[in-house]
Amino acid sequence: MPMLLNGADWATALVFVPLLAALACFLVPRAADWLGVLAALLILLATLGLVQDLLSDGPLRVAVGGWGAPLGIDLWADGLSAALLLMTALVGLGVSVYAPGYFAAHPQQQRWFWPLWLLLWTALNGLYLSADLFNLYVMLEVLGLSAAALTALSGSATGLNAAMRYLLVSLLGSAAYLLGVALLYHGYGTVDIALLGQRIEAGAVATTALLVMAAGLLLKTALLPFHFWLPPAHGSAPAPVSALLSALVIKASFYLLLRLWLDLFSGLGGLLAALLPELLGLLGAAAVLWGSVQALRQRRLKLLIAYSTVAQIGYLFLGFPLAGVQAEEVAWRAVLYLALAHGLAKAAMFLSAGNLLQFAGHDRIADLDRAVQRLPLTLTAFVLGGISIMGLPPSGGFVGKWLLLESAFTQGRWGFAIVVLLGGVLAAGYVFKVVGYAFTPTEIAQEGEAVPLRMQWSALLLAFGAILLGFSAPWLWPLLGVGDPFGLPIAEVGAAR
Amino acid sequence: MSSVLVFALAGLGLIGLGLYGLLVQRHLLRKVLAFNVISSGIFLLLAGLARRAPGAEPDPVPQAMVLTGIVVAVAATALALAMMLALRSATGRTRLEDHGDED
């Protein structure tokens, strides 16, 4: 059967569908619930179409409007972008199904949620598909602005305080990134990643650009010690927003950092290229331990999950020293598995927390009062998500940690291996702390509000996704290899098509 | 001193000034202004450092980038100001509370 649409159409649809849907939801708020879910289904369809195209025809480069680089703004898709697009589509669909249930109790917030969330989705898809540093900057700003506005949605004093801080941090981060873009353009006369990859050479310009861009993106990714803004923002936002921020927004700036490192800076050599991965690895290890310990100490469920995100971000950065300068592929694949698994699992956990919050009217862990009997689906979702976060088989988190350990063992990096294992043990500690209280009755029995089934099932299905990711290797593995994102520079494979 | 160097130093100076303001000033309006000073510094660098062969026409690409950047900065400033007003009407404060994560 001839395909009606080709990869270029799917890629373009991934940017335009959420953008048009955002406008439509803004104009017709009454139909927003339906429009939003419809858009989410269309985006998932387009993502699957793009994945299918990548698997059969290899990496994709689209010259939008027929204007190629260096003048035009190209779209670029390879295995790395496709995997993150797929995770975004799945989490996005789950949250979109969940949101109408949650916002039925908060109609004021529902009015603004849909346009902002779909704009956020536009920025995410655009970011994963962009091959142009300046376009990436614009996407990064759209992402940051819509994410900060979503954080403020609750309108509470805590929420506004956290959102304001988040906005300032996010603006500073993208300003630093833009400074790097300015330096690179000054040095090499282009902002197309593929062309830059060919022209860039070691020197003061490249070093400074790497430092400012890395600093800005680390601030946005909330790697320790830049994590200070994350727990209040993720902890005080409405539950579906927390899920989006933790599962998706963090990954976008991490992806950009990874992309820049792989395609531009890792081949430069020199002292900085050798030291920076080690530094990132050390910060990542510190984040794993510190974030997990903080999570154990929290008394509120959403803050516990937020600190768990701080820890899980740390894992992503262990890939830098383990992959080393010689592009050790397994470490990067491990990191990507962890990112995907964390996206699905953390979304499920935040949505579950939203259910518990709606049920009991609070999220104090000590007062969960037999939640396990009263909201069995929700608790199942939380535990399945937790299993992936701990890294128990057969979940996606297990595959990621296993590959990371394998990479650490073959290189004799015992310190990192111990951190990976210790982080898993601590994660088990904070997940079971919640589960334990969920089994325990409190002294005064508590009344609960009904929680719509769609809210319970969307959380559960996302958690199942995190577990099923562990079985997905047969088709995810080849997808990650499309375009060889972890090996050759982008330009050499881009010419193939 | 070449003109490129003058632009670069002025841009870096603005960035440094803005960064200092963003970190040190407590009032949110001053923080938002400091962010704008940083942006202006970056725009100055972008436009000033653009490659120019002697006698040739100036490179239009950085100008386009600066224009886009200004649009983004205006939007960001508007959102930040709106959020600041919302924060003030909710709490009566115009500065960030340091321990916002403990209820």
General description of the model:
The complex is a heterodimer of chains A (497) and B (103). Chain A is mainly α and 497 residues long. Chain A has a two-stranded antiparallel sheet with strand order 1-2. The longest helix of chain A has 32 residues. The radius of gyration of chain A is 21 Å and the shape is globular. The C terminus of chain A is likely disordered. Chain B has 103 residues and is mostly helical. Chain B has one domain: Helix Hairpins (Orthogonal Bundle). Chain B is built from 3 helices and no strands. In chain B, helix 2 packs antiparallel against helix 3.
Task: Quickly describe the structure.
The complex is a heterodimer of chains A (497) and B (103). By secondary structure, chain A is an all-alpha fold. Chain A is built from 20 helices and two strands.
Topology record:
The complex is a heterodimer of chains A (497) and B (103).
Chain A: H1 7-27, H2 32-57, E1 60-63, E2 74-77, H3 79-103, H4 107-129, H5 133-151, H6 157-188, H7 193-199, H8 204-221, H9 230-236, H10 239-265, H11 270-297, H12 301-323, H13 329-360, H14 371-374, H15 376-390, H16 396-410, H17 414-439, H18 453-468, H19 473-481, H20 490-494
Antiparallel strand pairs in A: 1-2
Helix pairs in contact in A: 1-2, 1-4, 2-3, 3-4, 3-10, 3-13, 3-18, 3-19, 4-5, 4-10, 5-6, 5-10, 6-8, 6-9, 7-10, 8-10, 9-10, 9-12, 10-12, 10-13, 11-12, 11-17, 12-13, 12-17, 13-15, 13-16, 13-18, 15-17, 15-18, 16-17
Chain B: H1 3-24, H2 28-49, H3 60-91
Helix pairs in contact in B: 1-2, 2-3
